[in-house]
Amino acid sequence: MASFLAAPRRPIATLPSTLGSVSLLASTDSNNAQPETLKIVQSTISKQLSIETSTVTPETKFADLGADSLDTVEIMMALEEQFGVSIGEGGAEDIATVQDAADLIEKLLASSA
């Protein structure tokens, strides 16, 4: 009688190669933020950059607002304080637009509830 442990090993299941790479993090471009969250994010960004709130639209990129990397860090810190959440060191890496920031804040608020 052959031992079970001596049997050749075969994978239980394989994933189709058409899947490509899969991100474990949720996309931030899904526009999940509540309108009130977006409005507060826009206001916070305009205050941090000393610009008119009307120029801060959801689709606006931070770079288009004249924000450099230090400005972006300061914006993230202000948003953390404003909403009482912790974005973390790597949390803001994929944020390019105002909507991205609002969506991330909304996601963090939902996960802390």
Automatic annotation (TrEMBL):
SUPFAM superfamilies: ACP-like. GO terms for molecular function: acyl carrier activity; phosphopantetheine binding. Residues 32-109 form the Carrier domain. InterPro entries: ACP, ACP-like_sf, ACP_chloroplastic, PKS_PP-bd, PP-bd_ACP. Keywords: Fatty acid biosynthesis, Fatty acid metabolism, Lipid biosynthesis, Lipid metabolism, Phosphopantetheine, Phosphoprotein. Pfam families: PP-binding. Gene3D superfamilies: ACP-like. The keyword Calcium does not apply. Belongs to the acyl carrier protein (ACP) family. NCBIfam families: acyl_carrier, PRK00982.1-2, PRK00982.1-4. Carrier of the growing fatty acid chain in fatty acid biosynthesis. This is Acyl carrier protein. It comes from Hevea brasiliensis (Para rubber tree).
